[in-house]
Amino acid sequence: MSTFLFSETIFGPIHSRRLGSSLGVNLLPVSRKYCNFNCVYCECGANTPGGSITLPSRYEVKDALLQKLAQLHADNQPVDSITFAGNGEPTIHPDFAGIIDDVINLRSRFYPNAKVSVLSNATMINNQQVVDALKKVDMNILKLDSALDATVKAVNRPTAHYTVSDTVNLLKQFNGKFILQTMFFEGDVNGLHINNMAENELSAWLKIVDELRPQQVMIYTIDRDTPEKTLRKATHNELETIKNKILELGVNVQVSE
Ligand code: SF4
Fold first, then answer.
1. What is the tens place of the pLDDT at every residue in 132-144?
2. Domain contains 230
Protein backbone atom coordinates (compact mmCIF):
# COMPACT_ATOMS: atom_id res chain seq x y z
CA MET A 1 0.00 0.00 0.00
CA SER A 2 1.13 3.54 -0.63
CA THR A 3 -0.35 7.01 -0.45
CA PHE A 4 -2.12 8.09 -3.62
CA LEU A 5 -3.42 11.07 -5.57
CA PHE A 6 -6.72 11.42 -7.40
CA SER A 7 -5.90 11.73 -11.09
CA GLU A 8 -9.17 13.41 -12.13
CA THR A 9 -11.25 16.43 -11.13
CA ILE A 10 -14.38 14.24 -10.90
CA PHE A 11 -13.65 10.75 -9.60
CA GLY A 12 -15.62 7.67 -8.62
CA PRO A 13 -18.20 6.91 -7.46
CA ILE A 14 -16.19 5.16 -4.77
CA HIS A 15 -17.53 3.40 -1.71
CA SER A 16 -16.99 5.71 1.26
CA ARG A 17 -17.08 4.37 4.83
CA ARG A 18 -18.92 7.51 5.88
CA LEU A 19 -20.92 8.63 2.83
CA GLY A 20 -21.92 5.53 0.85
CA SER A 21 -21.64 5.72 -2.96
CA SER A 22 -19.65 8.91 -3.23
CA LEU A 23 -18.85 10.84 -6.39
CA GLY A 24 -15.74 12.88 -5.67
CA VAL A 25 -15.01 16.46 -6.67
CA ASN A 26 -11.31 17.31 -6.54
CA LEU A 27 -10.77 21.09 -6.75
CA LEU A 28 -7.03 20.65 -6.36
CA PRO A 29 -4.36 19.76 -8.92
CA VAL A 30 -4.61 16.25 -10.41
CA SER A 31 -0.85 15.70 -10.33
CA ARG A 32 0.10 16.80 -6.83
CA LYS A 33 -1.27 17.46 -3.37
CA TYR A 34 -2.05 21.06 -2.37
CA CYS A 35 -3.13 21.74 1.19
CA ASN A 36 -2.60 24.25 3.97
CA PHE A 37 -2.32 21.36 6.43
CA ASN A 38 0.27 18.59 6.13
CA CYS A 39 -1.31 15.89 8.30
CA VAL A 40 0.92 13.03 9.41
CA TYR A 41 -1.80 10.58 8.35
CA CYS A 42 -2.74 12.19 4.98
CA GLU A 43 -3.69 9.55 2.41
CA CYS A 44 -2.41 11.86 -0.36
CA GLY A 45 1.08 11.83 1.16
CA ALA A 46 3.22 14.69 2.44
CA ASN A 47 3.18 18.21 0.97
CA THR A 48 5.75 18.87 -1.74
CA PRO A 49 7.04 22.44 -1.76
CA GLY A 50 7.62 24.52 -4.90
CA GLY A 51 6.43 23.91 -8.43
CA SER A 52 3.41 25.34 -10.18
CA ILE A 53 -0.17 24.83 -9.03
CA THR A 54 -2.94 24.47 -11.59
CA LEU A 55 -6.48 24.35 -10.27
CA PRO A 56 -9.47 23.39 -12.43
CA SER A 57 -11.62 26.37 -13.40
CA ARG A 58 -15.22 26.72 -12.24
CA TYR A 59 -16.34 26.00 -15.81
CA GLU A 60 -14.17 22.86 -16.07
CA VAL A 61 -15.58 21.48 -12.81
CA LYS A 62 -19.16 22.18 -13.87
CA ASP A 63 -18.71 20.65 -17.31
CA ALA A 64 -16.93 17.53 -16.04
CA LEU A 65 -19.56 16.98 -13.34
CA LEU A 66 -22.43 17.49 -15.78
CA GLN A 67 -21.02 14.85 -18.12
CA LYS A 68 -20.35 12.38 -15.32
CA LEU A 69 -23.76 12.78 -13.68
CA ALA A 70 -25.54 12.44 -17.03
CA GLN A 71 -23.64 9.22 -17.72
CA LEU A 72 -24.24 7.75 -14.25
CA HIS A 73 -27.92 8.66 -14.42
CA ALA A 74 -28.29 7.04 -17.85
CA ASP A 75 -26.58 3.89 -16.47
CA ASN A 76 -28.87 3.82 -13.38
CA GLN A 77 -25.85 4.03 -11.09
CA PRO A 78 -26.59 5.13 -7.50
CA VAL A 79 -25.01 8.27 -6.06
CA ASP A 80 -25.51 8.93 -2.34
CA SER A 81 -23.19 11.89 -2.09
CA ILE A 82 -21.35 14.35 -4.30
CA THR A 83 -18.32 14.91 -2.14
CA PHE A 84 -15.70 17.63 -2.18
CA ALA A 85 -12.51 15.82 -1.25
CA GLY A 86 -9.41 15.00 -3.31
CA ASN A 87 -5.79 16.10 -3.30
CA GLY A 88 -5.96 18.70 -0.55
CA GLU A 89 -8.21 21.32 1.01
CA PRO A 90 -11.18 22.17 -1.28
CA THR A 91 -12.06 25.53 0.29
CA ILE A 92 -8.70 26.94 -0.87
CA HIS A 93 -10.10 27.13 -4.41
CA PRO A 94 -10.81 30.83 -5.17
CA ASP A 95 -14.16 29.93 -6.83
CA PHE A 96 -15.25 27.50 -4.12
CA ALA A 97 -18.51 29.37 -3.42
CA GLY A 98 -19.57 29.53 -7.07
CA ILE A 99 -18.67 25.88 -7.59
CA ILE A 100 -20.85 24.92 -4.62
CA ASP A 101 -23.80 26.68 -6.32
CA ASP A 102 -23.13 24.82 -9.59
CA VAL A 103 -22.87 21.46 -7.83
CA ILE A 104 -26.09 21.99 -5.87
CA ASN A 105 -27.89 22.82 -9.13
CA LEU A 106 -26.54 19.73 -10.91
CA ARG A 107 -27.33 17.52 -7.92
CA SER A 108 -30.94 18.77 -7.94
CA ARG A 109 -31.20 18.07 -11.66
CA PHE A 110 -29.79 14.52 -11.75
CA TYR A 111 -29.81 13.09 -8.20
CA PRO A 112 -32.15 15.19 -6.03
CA ASN A 113 -31.82 12.78 -3.11
CA ALA A 114 -28.03 12.79 -3.08
CA LYS A 115 -26.24 14.86 -0.45
CA VAL A 116 -23.67 17.50 -1.26
CA SER A 117 -20.81 16.93 1.19
CA VAL A 118 -17.63 18.87 1.89
CA LEU A 119 -14.69 17.40 3.75
CA SER A 120 -12.68 20.38 4.99
CA ASN A 121 -9.99 21.13 7.54
CA ALA A 122 -11.89 24.29 8.62
CA THR A 123 -8.93 26.59 8.00
CA MET A 124 -10.86 28.87 5.63
CA ILE A 125 -13.92 29.55 7.79
CA ASN A 126 -12.57 33.03 8.48
CA ASN A 127 -13.69 33.79 4.90
CA GLN A 128 -17.35 34.85 4.70
CA GLN A 129 -17.87 33.49 1.18
CA VAL A 130 -16.60 30.09 2.24
CA VAL A 131 -18.84 30.13 5.33
CA ASP A 132 -21.90 31.12 3.29
CA ALA A 133 -21.17 28.32 0.79
CA LEU A 134 -20.69 25.72 3.54
CA LYS A 135 -24.03 26.75 5.05
CA LYS A 136 -25.71 25.65 1.79
CA VAL A 137 -24.41 22.06 1.72
CA ASP A 138 -26.03 19.01 3.33
CA MET A 139 -22.91 17.60 4.97
CA ASN A 140 -20.53 20.32 6.15
CA ILE A 141 -17.80 18.11 7.61
CA LEU A 142 -15.11 20.06 9.44
CA LYS A 143 -11.93 18.72 11.01
CA LEU A 144 -10.70 19.18 14.56
CA ASP A 145 -8.24 16.45 15.57
CA SER A 146 -7.35 17.81 19.00
CA ALA A 147 -8.29 20.52 21.47
CA LEU A 148 -4.61 21.18 22.16
CA ASP A 149 -2.62 23.55 19.94
CA ALA A 150 0.58 21.54 20.43
CA THR A 151 -1.10 18.37 19.17
CA VAL A 152 -2.63 20.12 16.15
CA LYS A 153 0.82 21.50 15.37
CA ALA A 154 2.33 18.00 15.55
CA VAL A 155 -0.51 16.12 13.80
CA ASN A 156 -1.93 18.54 11.22
CA ARG A 157 1.19 20.70 10.78
CA PRO A 158 -0.67 23.84 9.60
CA THR A 159 1.28 25.87 7.07
CA ALA A 160 -0.14 29.18 8.37
CA HIS A 161 -1.16 30.62 11.74
CA TYR A 162 -3.73 28.35 13.44
CA THR A 163 -5.13 28.14 16.94
CA VAL A 164 -7.81 25.84 18.30
CA SER A 165 -9.56 28.68 20.14
CA ASP A 166 -9.89 30.77 16.96
CA THR A 167 -11.20 27.74 15.08
CA VAL A 168 -13.73 26.90 17.79
CA ASN A 169 -14.99 30.50 17.81
CA LEU A 170 -15.35 30.44 14.02
CA LEU A 171 -17.17 27.08 14.14
CA LYS A 172 -19.84 28.77 16.26
CA GLN A 173 -20.97 30.65 13.11
CA PHE A 174 -22.67 27.43 11.97
CA ASN A 175 -24.90 27.25 15.08
CA GLY A 176 -24.39 23.48 15.24
CA LYS A 177 -25.23 22.89 11.56
CA PHE A 178 -22.01 21.07 10.80
CA ILE A 179 -20.39 17.71 11.37
CA LEU A 180 -17.20 17.61 13.41
CA GLN A 181 -14.70 15.05 12.11
CA THR A 182 -11.84 13.75 14.21
CA MET A 183 -9.19 11.19 13.28
CA PHE A 184 -8.02 9.16 16.30
CA PHE A 185 -4.67 7.37 16.35
CA GLU A 186 -1.40 7.00 18.25
CA GLY A 187 2.18 7.21 17.04
CA ASP A 188 5.65 8.74 17.18
CA VAL A 189 6.48 11.58 14.83
CA ASN A 190 9.85 13.36 14.85
CA GLY A 191 10.62 12.08 18.34
CA LEU A 192 7.25 13.21 19.71
CA HIS A 193 4.68 10.74 21.00
CA ILE A 194 1.16 11.60 19.81
CA ASN A 195 -1.99 10.07 21.25
CA ASN A 196 -5.14 12.16 20.80
CA MET A 197 -7.06 9.48 22.74
CA ALA A 198 -5.13 10.16 25.99
CA GLU A 199 -7.25 11.29 28.93
CA ASN A 200 -6.16 14.95 28.91
CA GLU A 201 -6.74 15.11 25.16
CA LEU A 202 -10.17 13.54 25.29
CA SER A 203 -11.48 15.59 28.20
CA ALA A 204 -10.47 18.86 26.48
CA TRP A 205 -11.88 17.70 23.12
CA LEU A 206 -15.18 16.57 24.69
CA LYS A 207 -15.55 20.02 26.30
CA ILE A 208 -15.36 21.53 22.80
CA VAL A 209 -17.88 19.01 21.45
CA ASP A 210 -20.25 19.96 24.27
CA GLU A 211 -19.70 23.67 23.65
CA LEU A 212 -20.25 23.45 19.87
CA ARG A 213 -22.92 20.73 19.87
CA PRO A 214 -22.54 19.82 16.18
CA GLN A 215 -25.35 17.92 14.43
CA GLN A 216 -23.02 14.92 14.41
CA VAL A 217 -19.48 13.92 15.30
CA MET A 218 -17.68 11.57 12.90
CA ILE A 219 -14.90 9.67 14.57
CA TYR A 220 -12.64 7.48 12.49
CA THR A 221 -9.16 6.11 12.27
CA ILE A 222 -6.47 5.35 9.74
CA ASP A 223 -7.72 3.33 6.78
CA ARG A 224 -4.95 3.52 4.19
CA ASP A 225 -1.21 4.03 4.10
CA THR A 226 0.16 7.21 5.69
CA PRO A 227 3.26 9.36 5.07
CA GLU A 228 4.45 8.65 8.64
CA LYS A 229 4.93 4.90 9.03
CA THR A 230 4.80 4.59 12.82
CA LEU A 231 1.11 5.40 13.31
CA ARG A 232 -1.23 2.94 15.02
CA LYS A 233 -4.94 2.77 14.24
CA ALA A 234 -7.39 3.34 17.07
CA THR A 235 -8.84 0.00 18.13
CA HIS A 236 -12.52 -0.89 18.04
CA ASN A 237 -12.67 -0.62 21.84
CA GLU A 238 -11.01 2.79 21.89
CA LEU A 239 -13.46 4.16 19.33
CA GLU A 240 -16.40 2.62 21.20
CA THR A 241 -15.25 4.28 24.44
CA ILE A 242 -15.04 7.66 22.71
CA LYS A 243 -18.40 7.09 21.03
CA ASN A 244 -20.06 6.43 24.39
CA LYS A 245 -18.60 9.60 25.90
CA ILE A 246 -20.04 11.62 22.99
CA LEU A 247 -23.42 9.95 23.40
CA GLU A 248 -23.35 10.86 27.12
CA LEU A 249 -23.28 14.50 25.98
CA GLY A 250 -26.43 13.88 23.94
CA VAL A 251 -24.60 14.41 20.64
CA ASN A 252 -25.09 12.16 17.61
CA VAL A 253 -22.01 10.18 16.58
CA GLN A 254 -20.92 8.05 13.63
CA VAL A 255 -17.94 5.69 13.93
CA SER A 256 -15.88 4.48 10.95
CA GLU A 257 -13.18 1.88 11.49
S1 SF4 B 1 -6.33 18.38 5.72
FE2 SF4 B 1 -6.85 16.55 4.55
S3 SF4 B 1 -5.81 16.83 2.57
FE4 SF4 B 1 -4.91 18.30 3.98
S5 SF4 B 1 -3.10 17.28 4.79
FE6 SF4 B 1 -4.78 16.87 6.21
S7 SF4 B 1 -5.67 14.94 5.55
FE8 SF4 B 1 -4.41 15.71 3.85
1. 999 999 999 999 9
2. yes
